[in-house]
Amino acid sequence: MQHDKVQQEQQTCVLQEDIQPFIEEISALRSLAGEAGVTDPLLEELDDFKHQVEHFDESAWERKEVRLLSRKELVRLSLAVLRAYDVRSG
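Above: the chain's sequence. Below: its structure in token form.
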């Protein structure tokens, strides 16, 4: 029983170490978008995505397809921020 609890705590720690940098990337993109004057719908989409990632459970994040889809979504949002900034500054 004690072994299971220790193992669960270790898995939670590994999950946090893995997911935390990803959440920080989303936060950095959100800050950049805000400073660049990106419109509210895109900012809301970034906030929603961050909230979704923050609430992934361990089993979801461990699935490779979830991590891959999340990474693709971050790339999509990054490109959307760049396009919005280019339109705004152009």
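The chain has one domain: 2-89.
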